[in-house]
Design a protein that fits this description.
The complex is a heterodimer of chains A (202) and B (161).
Chain A: H1 4-20, E1 33-34, E2 39-41, E3 46-47, E4 57-62, H2 68-84, E5 91-95, H3 107-110, E6 119-121, H4 126-131, E7 135-136, E8 138-145, E9 148-155, H5 171-180, E10 194-196
Parallel strand pairs in A: 4-5, 5-6
Antiparallel strand pairs in A: 1-9, 2-3, 2-6, 4-8, 7-10, 8-9
Chain B: H1 4-16, E1 24-27, H2 29-37, E2 43-49, H3 54-69, E3 75-81, H4 88-99, E4 104-108, H5 117-120, E5 127-128, E6 130-135, E7 140-144, H6 150-158
Parallel strand pairs in B: 1-4, 2-3, 3-4
Antiparallel strand pairs in B: 2-6, 6-7
The chains are: A alpha+beta (202), B alpha/beta (161).
Chain lengths: 202, 161
């Protein structure tokens, strides 16, 4: 019993720390398995991660029509798809905003976008909550491991939202280079300014 | 006898007064960090906002009201605009003037939020508005990554006073 006590204390401390070091807002951390979803695309079809058997992973980005930061990054998101879809990592864009709060983010308004990648509506906001997305744009790189998709990068696209030409560090592209080479991203989590997700009013 | 002209000029000056004194200083992060670290018993209410951010603009009057309601206490409201510096004259200054903001407004000119967000507070994920209330003497801090109603803001500040 005397020997077991330190061990028990250690177990208890580990158990406690696993709760303490989680951020207050729940959501995925790098290394977590992302649950699949089934969301409606602007073409009316339902989209899941499992649909695309060829995908080595995905660049999932929570974005919207209305946020000035999302608008500033729209072209860069399109370019990410152009660059990484042929390499097996297509973009999947998800709009989590409640159109009752942000009318410019209605399904009808979303349909005005003509992207080469899915632009999905997260009507129940459950996917944004599961991911722990807090803002638009908020980006997650998923890497396939068998039938699972493992969160491999969370955060910003780059270090200059105002002007793509002034960018010094392309955070997500740096991470993609390492992830595609089978290595963990050395900077796997970054922060950016963005608009709050327009959650449904309780 | 006072001429009509003088009266008009006087009125004009009176009306213009709120516009005076409200400058928008453009600062870099180390300056902000210094201000946040100042050893003082004043409670700081720091609100990060932007003219383009709807919920921010909506809650700004609450900060103005809290400032005037606590004018006789050691409370300082600092509004940190995260608009781009290129928008200072086009957007920020006209906005501050039009709204008649009396709280101090600064514009934080730092392009890479990943380099400083964490240092403001590790809990801040980066969405706006974000409010930090702190008192360095009592070492108390509270953070809110959400829009605050007047009642919520007043209640949050009350815990520091």
């Amino acid at each position: 019993m005397k020997k077991a006590l330190p061990l028990l204390t250690l177990c208890f401390a580990l158990l406690l720390s696993s709760f303490m070091f989680r951020p207050l807002a729940d959501g995925y951390q790098v290394g977590d398995k992302a649950a699949d979803f089934k969301l409606k695309n602007i073409d009316g079809k339902m989209v899941s991660l499992a649909d695309n058997k060829e995908a080595k992973g995905y660049i999932v980005v929570f974005t919207c029509n209305t946020c000035p930061y999302a608008k500033a990054y729209e072209n860069r998101i399109i370019q990410l798809n152009q660059k990484y879809a042929p390499q097996g990592y297509p973009v999947v864009a998800i709009n989590p905003n409640d159109p009752a709060v942000a009318p410019g983010d209605s399904f009808e308004a979303m349909k005005t976008k003509k992207y080469a990648f899915p632009y999905l509506i997260d009507e129940t906001q459950q996917v944004a909550k599961a991911y722990g997305a807090t803002r638009t744009p908020h980006l997650y790189v998923l890497k396939r491991q068998g039938d699972d998709f493992v969160v491999s990068y969370i955060g910003a696209i780059d270090d200059n939202s105002e002007d793509a030409k002034m960018v010094k560090t392309k955070y997500v592209e740096n991470a993609m280079t390492e992830i595609m080479a089978g290595k963990p991203a050395s900077t796997n989590s970054t922060k950016a300014i963005g608009c709050t997700i327009k959650w449904k009013r309780a | 006898m006072i001429s009509v002209k003088t009266v008009l000029l006087g009125c004009g000056l009176l009306l213009a007064t709120p516009g005076f004194g409200q400058q928008v200083a453009v600062i870099k992060f180390p300056e902000l960090q210094q201000r946040l670290a100042r050893a003082t018993d004043t409670t700081y209410v720091i609100n990060f906002w932007a003219t383009w951010c709807g919920p921010c603009v909506k809650e700004l009057p609450n900060f103005e009201q809290v400032r005037s309601a606590n004018a006789n206490k050691k409370v300082k409201v600092l509004l940190v605009s995260l608009d781009y510096a290129s928008q200072l004259d086009k957007k920020v200054k006209p906005f501050v003037k039009q709204r008649g903001l009396k709280s101090e407004v600064v514009l934080l000119n730092e392009p890479d939020p990943n380099s400083w967000l964490e240092k403001v507070d590790p809990k801040w994920s980066g969405s706006l508005p974000f409010t930090l209330i702190l008192n360095n003497k009592t070492k108390k801090r509270a953070t809110f990554e959400q829009e605050l109603s007047k009642a919520e803001l007043t209640a949050a500040l009350q815990k520091f006073l």
